Amino acid sequence: MHPISLTVNGQRVAREVEARLLLSDFLRHDLELTGTHVGCEHGVCGACTILVDGEAVRSCLMFAVQADGTRVETVESLGNEDSLNPLQEAFREAHGLQCGFCTPGILMTLGPFLRENPSPSEAEIRAALSGNLCRCTGYAGIVEAVKLAARRAAPAKTQR
Amino acid sequence: MTMTRLVGQSVKRNEDARLLSGRALFVDDVHLPGMLHAAFLRSEHAHARLRGVDLSGARARPGVIAAYSAEDLGGYWKPGPLLVPPPPIDGMIFRQATQVPLAKGKVRYVGEPIAVVIAESRYIAEDALDEIVLDLEPLEAVVDLEAALAEGAPRIHEQFDSNLAAHAVQRKGDYAKARAKAHRVISRRFHYDRGIAGAIENRAVVAQWDGRAEEMTIWDTTQAPIPIRNGLAAMLGLPQSQVRVIAPFVGGGFGPKIMMYYPEEVVIPWIARNLNRPVKWVEDRRENFAATTQERGQVHDAELAVAKDGRILGIRDVFLHDTGAYDPYGLTVPINSQCTLLGCYVVPQYESEFRAVFTTKPIVTPVRGAGRQHGVFVMERLLDIAARELGIDRVEIRRRNFIKPRDFPYDNEIIFQDFQPLVYDSGNYEPALAKAAEMIGYEAFIRDEQPRLKKAGRHVGVGIVSYIEGTGIGPYEGARVTVEPSGRVRLATGVGTQGQGHFTSFAQIVAEQLGVRTSDVFVVTGDTRTFDWGTGTFASRGAVVAGSACHAAAVAVREKAIALAARLLEVKPTKLEVKDGRVFLISDPSKGFSLGELAQQANPLRGAVTPGSEPGLEATRYFGPSRGSTAS
């Protein structure tokens, strides 16, 4: 067992974990942060995407021990049910989700993307989403939601 | 009386805030004190004799609580039930061979479960799988559909004399007559390959046995929680009231989650009771590829007898259907192919014959379309080929063959998957095709764009396909609408949700009747504790069948509220309106009651009630269509 200590959604967390414990399992089962979903466990579907030190990563491709000393953010760090953040709200308005299982990973992917590229083109949005599988095939709604969020976040002078 | 239309409006979904904030409950999110974890040992052979399973090494590993093979299940080990009996087609052959909880004596596909290990963690359980020793004699795999039926092919189910699972012929008229007078006969072979549904959420089962309450609770990624409850109660020898199945949020269904009594679904609850500890099994993606039911492969030899003007005179189709290692879902899928081939077209003479074939591949059950599109593919390819050979435009040849609006209801004279005659209720196909062709600029594309691209060396095509879908099939669904004294409206239905938006669409139906906001209707689906009559979510029938039940229940509650308010106000019911959560006098809106007040009045603590009346502002209603409807 290995001691690890990290910040998860702003809270200090210290635990003893096996070296082989996946970060996704650590978050979901040890910390009971079940908003992070697991769809493939080999880095393909993107459902388990979280932020580690601000970067979007797949939590199923990291061991919990590798997150020692990092700052981790999961979907639970975004708005809650009563106060969704603007990106979540845009998803709700533009019907950017159906079953919702892939959604947390998509939101976590898009956070850093929109910070780096606040007014992306559709092609850029689609490229950013290329690592997140939505099997309900709701991409049209997802892309629409991202455009809506970007439009709303844009400074007033650039709004058309 | 005016009523605000809510149905059909684009609104924010009631369920989205939960899903977007990561607070929605999926089965793998269930954490219970003392919970154990299961891992299944699966066959790595497509076909093998299984002589022995030695679990001693696995059982000896630290952290392992138990391990089971088929023998350890004792009398609980039974092949699953036939979920859908074959429809009554004259002269049909059907051979039943359903899946088993754990393989015994033989394995019949890669991924078939052989043993299960229960341990303190999934990691330990998977470690222990490596310690299981199998005594296996590999047999020849049966993969190709034609070879599977050939003389001397290795037999998958030795109780049968071949790998034939079913044979059925359906006829309308006499195809030979059509062939005799045809201007041209077009024959082709069409292959339709296997596939998987690949829902983003894999399957999962959590079972918890409460020995003191003698109650089993099962969280299951199923599209059919109520039939699962009924079936598992029978298998476990428990009253149905003591088994609760919850299908919470489910991350995509697409058909495989309507398959019932998967081995894992049957084994996990039994083990939870046996060990008196909660047990969780979550499928990983590799298991999903091998052990979740799949989409069907088919090979069609089809023939179209066509007149010079492109009119269909008759069609003959002979096809093989791959049912995989077992056939628990009966003939739903090939019957769908057989029936849906006819599509929107007048086919005066039709002969369709299929053989379902056992292969050493995962079980085939309905997946996204459930075989319908196979028929569509064959028909539309035949029409494209006929159009080319006869020099008729592809839109035009379809137009010439459409069933005309005056001909509905239209009887295709064969039996559909719901055992009813295949009769289309209504349709008007020509305007839809014309509009589609216009919207995509079909004529301009064919006339200008395609030749221009071709000159530039680019081969760009356009496809034309018509599709109608038999849906809205029975048997029935139900719904209960309750107004609580707080004014909150509850809706319960048995139709579980896999992303369809039921929390919103059903709420819209109820909200419209009760004059409340869609967001004020609290919907519970897929929990047998809350509603336990119904069949499940399949065949795109939720809105038609369950939606109609929601409507009927909401209308009943509305009438109850109006009748009560009319009695209290001593006016005729026709003088009242329901709006904004209130029932009030049209002539004086200040006189009236909130729905919550009426709910309280309808459930008094003391005093007399009208004999024969039912308490509360509540109603349960069912809807069962006489036959399916035709979506176009």
Overall mean pLDDT of chain B stands at 95
| Largest Cβ-defined interface | A-B, 45 and 35 residues
- Continuous helix count of chain B: 16
Assembly annotation? heterodimer
The share of residues in helices of chain A is: 25-40%
Query: Which overall shape of chain B is indicated by the principal axes computed on the Cα atoms?
Result: flat
Give the strand line-up of the largest sheet of chain A: 2-1-5-3-4
Separation, N- and C-terminal Cα atoms of chain A: 56 Å
State the secondary-structure class of chain B.
alpha+beta
Q: Identify low-pLDDT runs of chain A.
A: none
Q: How is the biggest beta sheet of chain B arranged?
A: 7 strands, mixed
Percent of residues in β-strands of chain A: 15-25%
Core attributes:
heterodimer, A: 160 residues, alpha+beta, 32% helix, B: 632 residues, seven-stranded mixed sheet, six-stranded mixed sheet, 27 strands, 27% helix
